[in-house]
Specification:
The protein is mainly β. It has a single domain, classed as Acyl-CoA thioesterase, double hotdog domain (Porin). Helix content is about 15%, strand content about 40%. The protein is built from four helices and 13 strands. A 13-stranded antiparallel β-sheet has the order 1-2-4-5-6-3-10-13-12-11-9-8-7. A hairpin with a 2-residue loop joins strand 5 and strand 6. The two termini are about 30 Å apart.
Length: about 270
């Protein structure tokens, strides 16, 4: 069952200018003190978009120096690294109580015609064939391919895929990018834990301490989260107390619209 509401998740995208290149936005309320990393990714995208015209986000790389507190709004400071004709770059630092909780490098690009190519989309059936599943931080329709349970302690392949579709809404292109970013932050750690018998994502933090250390997204084409999207991901390696996982996002028609990757801390409790 989702522990956040759709309306609150959408509202967190409403960034407000509070000074020159300084913004803030509401946190998503929930019965939990730590800010969800997906919220910070989504807001960093919206802040970057608010500083440009005629460009859209093409990539974001974020690191999380420390956890955020839901009791305090985040203040986002923007440094304009580049302002070109077709490309722009922003460095965004989200702070609370004088300390950074997210540092994001965001690149933006004017759409240009050019070469196109992609490998075929994975064969994972249709949304109707997947198993309806509630995710704690994704307050919209989600359906898991083959009904895989990331909370299971049985060992399995380091792969996970699900379909998702939000309620219909009329937000700008960056809102769709931001909601996708929010969703990509939830299940990668669980994917990295799948090969490890006796552990599942529900064992954090009692049996294993987990935290996202960095997250990267690339947007290849325009997308809408209120149409079905397939999120397919895998974790090729866990080593040195860290997990690495990556994924791709396809439309129902098979277009590759985005890719993402994440590094996380995986520290078994002694």
């Amino acid at each position: 069952m989702a522990i956040v509401r759709w309306e609150d998740t959408l509202a967190c995208l409403s960034v407000e200018a509070v000074g020159e290149d300084t913004f803030t936005a509401p946190n998503i309320p929930m019965a939990y003190r730590r800010i969800f990393g997906g919220q910070l990714l989504a807001q960093a995208l919206c802040v970057a978009d608010a500083t440009v015209e005629s460009k859209t986000v093409k990539s974001l790389h974020a690191s999380f120096p420390r956890q955020g507190d839901l009791a305090e709004r985040v203040e986002y400071r923007v440094q304009r690294e580049r302002e070109g004709r077709t490309l722009a770059h922003r460095l965004i630092v989200g702070e609370q109580a004088g300390g950074a909780i997210v540092v994001a490098s965001v690149a933006l690009h004017s759409q240009e015609p050019g070469l196109e190519y992609q490998i075929p989309a994975p064969e994972m059936g249709s949304p109707e064939e997947a198993v309806a599943t509630d995710f704690s931080m994704i307050p919209w329709e989600t359906r898991v391919v083959d009904g895989v349970d990331l909370g299971s302690r049985e060992a399995g392949p380091p792969q996970f895929a699900f379909w998702m579709r939000s309620p219909s809404f009329s937000g700008a292109a960056v809102a769709h990018q931001a909601l996708l970013a929010h969703a990509t932050d939830l299940t990668l750690i669980g994917t990295s834990l799948r090969p490890h018998a006796g552990l599942g994502e529900d064992d954090s933090p009692e049996r294993i301490q987990t935290a996202v250390t960095s997250h990267t997204l690339w947007f290849h084409r325009a997308l809408r989260v209120d149409d079905w999207l397939l999120i397919s991901q895998e974790s090729p390696v866990v080593a040195a107390g860290r997990g690495f996982a990556q994924g791709h996002v396809h439309t129902r028609a098979g277009e590759l619209v985005a890719s993402f990757a994440q590094e996380s801390m995986l520290r078994p409790v002694a």
